[in-house]
Amino acid sequence: MKKIEVKELKDNMFETISKEWMLVTAGTKDKFNTMTANWGGIGFLWNKPVAFIFIRPERYTFDFIEQNDYLTLSFLGEEHKDVHKICGSKSGRDIDKVKATGLQPLFTENGSITFEQARLTFECKKLYADMIKPEDFIDQSIIDRWYGEAHGGFHKMYVVEIVNVLEAIS
């Protein structure tokens, strides 16, 4: 993978995140977990390029994010939906997702984890986090639609600085 500048990105990130999905990965070379996500975005905040993601505390990856300063957002391309299905429906508590999917881990200089199959990776440093709170919703219908017994608990939102953008070498 080669490093590029954020300003060199060609993706429409609305399309990339919502349709292609991403793997959120955190941990160390010795122990990490990854999960599929498609709730988040990128922007500019505090004079930094940032991403924001939402993770439910009951997810196994949540503890890895909490315990580490860095995480990655890896985009594999729509041809890897089979990987996303496993990483989005199975828990790393129960299976080895790398083995089950054939993902090939790569480690950055900062010790973050991405995968050989990734066409694009954001290596990110945590800046801010807060729990989504039911009392702060202006549109209460969102709670009924996305939370509760049928869906799970409230997410924690993370704002992360994009410290490196890595692109697959064509």
Automatic annotation (TrEMBL):
Question: Domain of life of the organism in this record?
Answer: Bacteria
Domain Flavin reductase like: from-to ranges: 18-165
Pfam families (UniProt xref): Flavin_Reduct
Cross-referenced InterPro entries: Flavin_Rdtase-like_dom (IPR002563), Flavoredoxin (IPR052174), Split_barrel_FMN-bd (IPR012349)
Gene Ontology molecular function: FMN binding; oxidoreductase activity, acting on the CH-NH group of donors, NAD or NADP as acceptor
Give the UniProt family note.
Belongs to the flavoredoxin family.
Q: What is the name listed in the Swiss-Prot or TrEMBL entry for this protein?
A: Flavin reductase like domain-containing protein
Originating species: Phocaeicola massiliensis B84634 = Timone 84634 = DSM 17679 = JCM 13223
Q: What is the lineage of its organism?
A: Bacteria, Pseudomonadati, Bacteroidota, Bacteroidia, Bacteroidales
